[in-house]
Amino acid sequence: MALLRCSKIQVDKAYSRVVNVPTFLKKLMNITGMTDQWVAAWIKQKADNKCIPWRNLKDLILEHPNTNKKVDVFALSIYGLVVFPKALGHVDEVVTDLFDRLDKRVTPVPVILAETFRSLNA
């Protein structure tokens, strides 16, 4: 919670997909604070999902002038590479959806447990 600066997460709300979800490009623009040209240049297609390579996020973490955005990109990277690794070395579109929900103070715990249970069954 300290890394994501979400001290007031509403524990009574479970993670769920919203009907009107912004596009992957818009969510990445919001999280990284970069332009649509920068984000569009690095979006890749892996299997059936869109993603962004970790190396591009790493470079952004090292060079971004805004400290808050550095922390946001770092936290997104942790979620994408450690908690929900789908494509090796890439942060998946689904992770940005979860990260976008964190900004609305919705707890990620149920989805993390569900994803862990699903991956253990696989």
UniProtKB/TrEMBL annotation:
Organism superkingdom: Eukaryota
Location of the DUF7745 domain: 11-121
InterPro entries the UniProt entry points to: DUF7745
PANTHER family assigned to the protein according to its UniProt record, in alphabetical order: AMINOTRANSFERASE-LIKE PLANT MOBILE DOMAIN-CONTAINING PROTEIN, PROTEIN, PUTATIVE-RELATED
Name the record gives this protein: DUF7745 domain-containing protein
Top-level taxonomy: Eukaryota, Viridiplantae, Streptophyta, Embryophyta, Tracheophyta
